[in-house]
Fold this sequence. Notes:
The complex is a heterodimer.
Chain A: H1 20-27, H2 32-59, H3 63-66, H4 69-74, H5 82-104, H6 109-127, H7 133-152, H8 154-177, H9 195-222, H10 226-241, H11 244-258, H12 267-292, H13 296-304, H14 309-324, H15 326-339, H16 351-360, H17 368-397
Chain B: H1 5-8, H2 17-50, H3 80-113, H4 118-132, H5 136-148, E1 158-160, E2 164-167, E3 170-173, E4 175-178, H6 182-210, H7 216-239, E5 243-246, E6 249-251, E7 254-256, E8 259-261, H8 263-290, H9 293-301, H10 306-336, H11 348-359, H12 362-391
Antiparallel strand pairs in B: 1-2, 2-3, 3-8, 4-5, 6-7
Helix pairs in contact in B: 3-4, 3-8, 3-11, 4-8, 5-8, 6-7, 8-10, 9-10, 10-12, 11-12
Amino acid sequence: MTTLTPTKEILPPPTERITILGWMKKNLFGSIGDTILTFAAGAFLVWLVYSIGHWIFFSAQWAAVTDNVHLFMKGQYPGSEDWRLWLLLYLLGLVVGLSWGIFLKRAETVGWVLLIVPIVLAVWIWSLGRQSWMNLLLIDVLAIVGYFLGKRYPKQLARPTYIMILLYMPLVILLVRGFGENGFLKLVTTNLWGGLLLSLLLAVFGIVFSFPFGVLLALGRQSKLPALKTLSVIYIEVIRGVPLITLLFMGQLMLPFFLPSGIIIDRVIRATVAIIMFAAAYMAENVRGGLQSIPKGQYEAADALGLNGFQKMTFIILPQALRAVIPVLVGQFIGLFKDTSLVALVGLLDLLGIARGVLANPNYIGRQLEVFAFIALIYWVFSYGMSYGSRRLEIALGVGER
Amino acid sequence: MTFKESDHGAVPFWRDERYLQIIIQIAVVLALIAIGWYLINNLLTGLQNLGIPLSFKFLSLTAQFDIGEKLIEYNRNNSYARALTVGLLNTVKVSFLGIIFATIFGIIVGIARLSKNWLVSKLAAMYVEALRNIPLLVFLIFLSTSVFHKLPRVKNALSIGNFAFLTNRGIYVVWPRVAEGWGVYRWFLLLAFIVGFIVATIKFREGKRTGRMPLYWLWGFVVFAILAVIFWFIAQIMAGQPLRLDFPSLQGRNFQGGQSLTPEFMAIFSGLVIYTSAFIAEVVRAGIQAVSKGQREAATALGLSGFQTMRLVIFPQAMRVIIPPLTSQYLNLTKNSSLAIAVGYPDLFAVGSTIINQSGRAVEVILITMGVYLTFSLLTSLFMNWYNKHTRLVER
């Protein structure tokens, strides 16, 4: 056996120096073909940016959008009751700020974007002479305050934050709908709900209420009992095999027949039921994916500890299974939010329905491009924001690392 | 040592899991039957009271409405059943063409996202992210109202040479039409196809035997193409030109000749293709990235060229990951084609909804529509199961 004689000087590994030119050579002009591609793509990009920019600032007429911002945001919701929606948004700002401070700790780029967007919006709305700008700024301030509070006192504030998150949904229903004929918190019937408000409510109801059904269906599909298993499989496969639009039409046209005569359910709730039924089947498949990712040892360990079936599921299996599918669930939520636009086809006035209504107004004839660009941007911002947030959450929770 | 049951005391049947399981199942099934019976009873009596009892006999009544686009003969005196068939064929047409084009675009964009060229990969990423985060319905209505119905009038149509004319009434493109020599030529084509197939099979067998697999499908295709060209001239001498190009031309107020594509079809077709291609691009990208880096390095170490690495090592392994989500995208595209109702393309669902408005037979029509879509999806999952069994990793 020979021994290695150590050299006197150990040379450090060569370091790669990255210069701008070097980076460009490597990533843009690697070969002749690459160079041609780069120029073609660059020319296309310049043309795209120029024509879109030119359209936005010079040829588009934004009156159809700016005149109807309140319609796009909340439909026919009475202006005197606006404070309820603002109150919910203040709370949302606070909760988001708190959870950001407590769970994610660092203020990342997206955090700053989230903070800056309302300020820009507020300035813009202020320049239009509207009253909403102060409210927007207030939401922002609450979010910032929440963030610093959450970062400063994470231990003490964690529990109240959880409670606020849990109570937020019931509070939304209570405040948006109201009760009683008149006076404080008077009833606002669902036919007055519209615009972004309705789209968001449908998506949130859909995901929240489909969640328990989806988990039950997933457990049913995994179950050893043949009758339960068959029923779950039939439900899941039938719903997943048909388009959402047929379910929505079924809700509007067939549901009234299924109920005893005399009972009338309003259209928004019928659409919500269809969306929940639809979402539950997809939710079940996603949860099943999570259940299948749990190793057998976990079940056996729970059995060995003497837990019964219910305890085993709630304390051992489901917490792990659900954590594993968070990204998929966010993806589903985004899909559901986009799918709520289909209720416009059954005559509800969600964001798309309002857009079609505005375009039917003779004052705004031929302004399709502006209106659709506006609502597409709203859908895009929400969907992209959610997918970005879920990626951050994934990293924070360490999904796939443990 | 054996235990007698009396040693422990018999487990009472209400705590015995075997009995409990059966009891729970019977209870659930009974409850569901009761609820279902109640709901269906409500439905049947409700329909009876309205004077439209549940029956499918109305399908043979005359439809009395026109359909703009049809693949089979249809007029307003035909039955509802015929109208639904026209709608079904339109659904199949747009889905089939949509799947083919979405796959092509999706693969191009997916590979572009993995390109070493920074600008190209960022452009592809922009395309995907822009489309994935807006609702398809908004995109479709946008295409229909702001693109295809905003094209110039027939008089000043946008033209691409003599080959295509873009107008707000539709798009007219040059199209091959069968001519006098077709009767002979189609048999020649069949012959060319058979010969090409045989050549491909021989090359494939040879590859199996020697272990050096040639591009057998390319061999088959080239043989087929060469024969097809040779036969073309033979057929032309024997019976005249087999196919003739039909150019669209402005005659009076509208274009004649060529193949016309309505704005409705173009809106739903291009909408589905562009939208689905963004999703397929992600599927393709994920599939290629799922092949471990070592495979690529091993292929390079064996001296395979870039193209060979892709064809022989990366792609076959990526396919196993790609195919299942890809089929689910195909299924999504087919189901999404039901949004054609928003742009006025008469697919199955749009025709069905016209029938509902006209005859009031909501329950029957919705059941038929759902049944058709369900059949599509069941066929697809049958294929999926077969494919998964076929390509499963066999571990030793």
